[in-house]
Amino acid sequence: MTQEKRPLVAVTIGDPAGIGPEVVLKAVQSEKVRAVARPVVVGERRLLERCAAQAQLPLPLWVDLDSPWPASAVGLFDVDVPELDLETLRPGTPSALAGRAAEAFIHSACTLIREGRVAALTTAPIDKRSLRLAGCPHIGHTELLGDFFGVSDPLTMFITENLRIFFLSRHLSLSKAIELLSGDRIQDALVHIDAALRLLGFEHPKIGLAALNPHAGDGGQFGDEELRTLAPAAMHARDRGVNVSDPIGADAIFHLALEGRFDAVLALYHDQGHIASKTRDFHGTITVTLGLPVPRTSVDHGSAMDIAWTGAANARSLELAIIEAAKMVR
Fold first, then answer.
1. How high is the pLDDT of residue 69?
2. Which residue from 4, 83, 177, 213 could staple onto 223, CB 3.0 to 4.6 Å apart?
């Protein structure tokens, strides 16, 4: 791929007190990443330099976004966060300061998208504790991005090898997720997933619907949500042209998808899908947000405050996320 065909991918550094700056520094210098994308790091240069020195990492050859782009260079959009005192910031410790900086980096990347200066977005992990301390009204990336772009319900998809997982709900308690389980929500999600998969190139997508209860309720012996809510929703989705299964036990459906039975699975709550993907390949799982103005990908791990800025963080998930964003642009 020639340099001119490599799309510009904005890469935010996440919570500055977590492993985000470190994994970004590692990932954007990967030859595999630079072969398919021109990464543009969105963060503060002073902070990146301090992280590189502490974690004993090389700094890339930085280039301004609008400057000529040598093949070995990495773009840098330097975000000035006036209150970000590097002497006060403590790697490994959530804080309001870190939360405000993370939010500023995300908003700066969104501005680049809105101005048409980048073709995709990849995000390093933020920390919900820092966001909460900063008074941010949103709990995570998806909500922040949806609010910025006016998208009320963007779709989240996980990719692990050939396993694709969508989520009916994510950042809710299990009791709340079950309380909000409804036939209309499931049916609408299945229709949106079908449309998203078609946009991604699947002509006749096959979707597996994960059950809530053990053995899909076993005819109502272990709960009746499958009989009362899930199966009727699947039937109505099929009436709308969606090729979806009846509810299948979560202990089997992800294995069936890996075998090729389904192109994607709809998980009903956070851990149901996360456990499947992360057990398969923890460092190889990425998340994709669909429904935004540009493709957005991210890592499927947290800010790992316990190893922040030590040089020990694994950047493979972020590398794969940037590569997937570039592929989605093409």
1. 85
2. 213
H/E stretch holding 157 reads strand 155-160
Structure tokens at 129: 């504790």
Residue 25 lies in a domain: yes
What band does 1 get if pLDDT is binned at 50, 70 and 90?
low
DSSP H helical ranges for 86-169:
96-114, 128-133, 141-149
Residues 254 and 309 in one domain: no
The reply to whether 281 falls in a domain is no
pTM of the model: 0.87
By residue range, what is the domain housing residue 185? 157-275
DSSP string of 20-68, one letter each residue: HHHHHHHHTT-HHHHHH-EEEEEE-HHHHHHHHHHHT-PPPEEEETTS-
Separation CA 46–CA 143 (nearest Å) = 28
* CATH for 21: 3.40.718.10
As a whole number of angstroms, the distance between CA 76 and CA 235 comes to: 50
Tokens of 173: 């308690």
Which phi-psi region, left, alpha or beta, contains residue 313 (left: φ > 0; alpha: ψ -120 to 50)?
beta
Q: In terms of domains, do 14 and 146 share one?
A: yes
Q: How far apart are CA 21 and CA 275, in angstroms?
A: 26
Q: Is a pLDDT exceeding 70 seen at residue 292?
A: yes
In a domain, 286, yes or no: no
Q: Which helix (H) or strand (E) holds 120?
A: strand 120-123
Residue 250, in any domain of the structure: yes
